[in-house]
Batch of 4 targets.
Target 1
Amino acid sequence: MLRVYISLLLLLSATHIFSAEYAVIANKNMKDLSQTQIKAIFLKKLTIIDDTKMVPVSLGARDKLRENFEKNILKMNFQRLKSYWSKQHYLGRRPPLSMKSEESVKAFVKKVDGAIGYIEKSAIDNDIKILYEWKD
């Protein structure tokens, strides 16, 4: 029984050690935002904050980090989000810009006021602001 307990404890520790950390980022001028506001920005329900047009930036449709973001922040799976954007299309709304890499998201966010994206926390530097953090 003790071996089972120790094995379980080691497994839980290893899972905690190897869990990835992520962050929603913006340029340094962005004010702090709540998770609810971040979700609204990525669903294009909130488009302007303090006279600044919000520009959400996502990764490619099947990117693992994007899937993680959609599950943990937007609380939507791929099919539900696809359906959401199909309906929004008829209202004249388009989904967030899509970038090929975390590096391009980071570069875009640094240069564009109102831009907001997400990357792995390990890639963050002093030129960007962390708005929200989460783990796997």
Target 2
Amino acid sequence: MKAWLARAAAGTVARGRGRTRVARWIRWFPRTGPVDDRAFQGPDEPYPRHWRRFPAPWPPVSGAEGAVRRHLYAALDQLPATWQAVVRQRDVAGRDPERVADDLGISAEQQRTILNQARAALREQLAELLTRRDRR
């Protein structure tokens, strides 16, 4: 009975009928992937879901390079607080996903989604730095 009630409540919230913060959040922020959908071909194009144009290759660079590290830390500081916490605990401290989710009070799926989106945002910032540096 408890499982059924939980599924019914979750379904109501997901449809936006509830008056909870989660229901409002779902309506405000539509689900997005780590890469903008416009980067891929649509269903009416020759190769649906394939890249429109491949991303530019990055020049070889070391993660120990000071400019790269500073740029990444600055980009990390611009992320939302929860995203920062997930990236710092998972990628910097190397903690287990379950422990990170428990510490932050979020589900494992939320933690994984946040990590993917945060990594994509950091990758974009790093690509911007490296392509700008490559043009010099």
Target 3
Amino acid sequence: MEQFKFKKMVNLLEKYKIKFFKSKMVKDLDAAAAAAKKFGFPVVLKVISKDIIHKSDVGGVVTGIMDEKKVKEGFLKIMKNIKRKVPKAKIEGVLVQKQCKGEEIIIGMKRDKQFGPVIMFGLGGIFVEVMKDVVFRICPVDRKMAIEMVNEIKAAPVLKGFRGKKKINIDAVVDIITKISKIAMDKKKILEIDLNPIIVDEKNANVVDVRMAG
């Protein structure tokens, strides 16, 4: 199974009107600093490589960067970490991304040999591995089914404004679920999709990381 290149993945998402959050892939210090200044601080830096799936595990992510000097330091730190921990990885670049706040969710797809494409939804980030609070549906997934998925996870009350928390934009989440289902039905060569995390708040569902393989 081959991992897709970053630009190919983002272009596909945009074709299906799934926005990838404010970001730019760069290859040097000055370009990183310029992109960060354009987006406004804080920003996040992430290594982009088909050979690296879990970026945080190899020191490929730096968060909470508040100025241009720290951007350059973060860029060099990532390169040093990757060279030490994954020396054979081919680096496409470093992603400079505006940092956003909200609840982390995951929307994914896996092509099962028996059932065909299956959509997954649940809490994102590290929680998907620790809490395993996820639900599944066989494609195609329509709006009604997507709403059911959001309601079925154990953490649904958190997403709906539990104990003073602001309710997330459920419609935006449902929209992404149905569009990932459409991609799965249209693009048979894609075997896996992971949008993890998607950071959601009361207004938006911001896709901040993507992985696809086929």
Target 4
Amino acid sequence: MKARRFIAGALALTLTGCTVGPHYKRPSTEVPAQYRGIVPGSENQSADPAFAEMKWQSVFQDEALQALIKEALTNNYDIRIAASRIVQAEASVGIARANQRPALSGSFGIENDRIPGTRVAPTFYAGALAVSYVFDFWGQFRRATEAARANLLGTRYAAYVVETTLISEVATAYFELRQFDSQLDFSKRSVVSDQDSVRINTINYRGGEYAITDVYQAQLLLQQAEAEVISLTQSIEQTENQLSILLGRTRARLPEEWLSWIKRI
């Protein structure tokens, strides 16, 4: 009798003590209520949402930029990959949870045999129904479900990071393109002005009023302005290529309607 009790107690301890993996507990962290050096009176302005929590539509109110971001979120391949990974993670959670439930399977068949030498052909019907259930004594399926849920949360966070990074890169490239366009317009005007300076200095040099160094200096400024135009043109093309990649476009350059829209702003 004592031996039976001992065996039963050992079995109970085995079943309760051999759970696969420890229970996860989020580590406790102490976060200060506010930053040091905060502006007096700003702690009462908690009604406004933090900048990091604002929607990108509220941060970027430029219509052209909003259209570019929407197109990037729709066509960018990194976003598509992240979305497909979320679907896969959700399916993995469903599969892991299904292992904790009973499995029901059934089969049905019909067999018709003709007896040799007779016209008798009896028909036999066969059916079977089976129920199986694996008791999760050691918590294998429970830990697998927890791992699948953690993987799902990580996948969703990764997709959020991809989306935030994509929006940031599109906005950065967009503002760089506008900056290059403005600088290119200024450089082209500088080229025209420097050409006039070269012409005037050449006339004055031929008239004996200026030295030859004045003509050389004007020509040097003109060459610098022309080189700046070439450099800015290359930068604009590179930025357009970068935007095209972010937008998932097959062609390298942006369409003319987008370029005209950007330059009108």
